[in-house]
Amino acid sequence: TYISQFMTLLPGDVITTGTPAGVGLGQKPEPWYLKAGDVVELGIDGLGSSKQVVKAYSEN
Questions:
Q1: How far apart are CA 6 and CA 15, in angstroms?
Q2: Cα dist from 57 to 13, 31, 60, whole Å
Q3: CA-to-CA distance for 1 and 20, rounded, in angstroms?
Q4: What is the pLDDT of residue 52?
Q5: If you write DSSP's letter for every residue of 1-60 in order, what string do you get?
Q6: 48 contact partners, CB below 8 Å, separation of at least 6
């Protein structure tokens, strides 16, 4: 693959690219963004899923 010319890919590596249609910035009438407590889940049938909970930024 193209990316493997620049780095070694191992089983389990996840490659993400770009931003899909319908993201927060493109919402009308006002854009909306992820906020603390929101849940982002990605799944692929037969492979599994990954879930992340958004947390507020803290310098501590």
A1: 13
A2: 26, 20, 9
A3: 22
A4: 94
A5: --GGGTS---TT-----S--TT-GGG-SSS-----TT-EEEEEETTTEEEEEE-------
A6: none
Low-confidence ranges of the chain (pLDDT < 70): 1
Q: 35, 54 in Cβ contact below 8 A?
A: yes
Q: What residue ranges do the domains of the chain occupy?
A: 21-55
| Dist CA 1 CA 7 (whole Å) | 10
pLDDT at 1: 64
The confidence score (pLDDT) of residue 41 equals 92
